[in-house]
Amino acid sequence: MINGKEIQKVIFAGGMLMFASLTLFFIAEDSTFFRIFGLLSFGYFTCGLMAALLYYYYPNSAPIKKFYFKITGKNEFTQNQDLKKDFMEIYNDDGIFTFFENSFSIKFENSVDSINWSEINSMIAYKMDLYTTDLICLEIYCSNNLNFKINEETPGWFRFIENSKKMLPNITENWESSIVLPAFATNLTLIYDKENRNLEEVTKGLNEKKGSL
To answer: For 181-211, how does the pLDDT look when each residue is reduced to its tens digit (9 = 90+)?
Structure first.
């Protein structure tokens, strides 16, 4: 299976190679060899791009999978290794965060703010329905009123989740699994509260303070 990051690279590389092949075909007017080479290259790269796109959208189709592996020269093992490598790069990336012993900093669009883990009052998780997929989101409320919102596409998401479980007592350990199912449901869940309040108490307090993100 191809992930979203890889398909973007394939589309960009395939488009550039197709453009280069067509350019070679049109500028090599006096060379039959290079014109044929350019035309064949264009056909090959077009097939490669089509194979990747089809495999991305229909990963469980045996004929498409066979076509993709034949065109790219890959196999199931090398494909899985590439996916594992890409995931580990994303997983270990601090992204917009910098982590310290008892605190972390977060880079916003025009500023960088530091937050001590002890300043976090509540964390609320939920899902957004994006029609074809779900997006897990997390709202973090702090005692210094520096509230922020991140989602699983935020750079550094995995590192933040990992560190929050280490630094915050009483956080729900495997809260992600309770958010995922059922699919396309919001599943609003309080995963951490410093005062051990329930979701209703926390949301009521946020509404009173007008602190809801």
So the answer is: 777 788 899 999 998 898 888 888 777 665 4
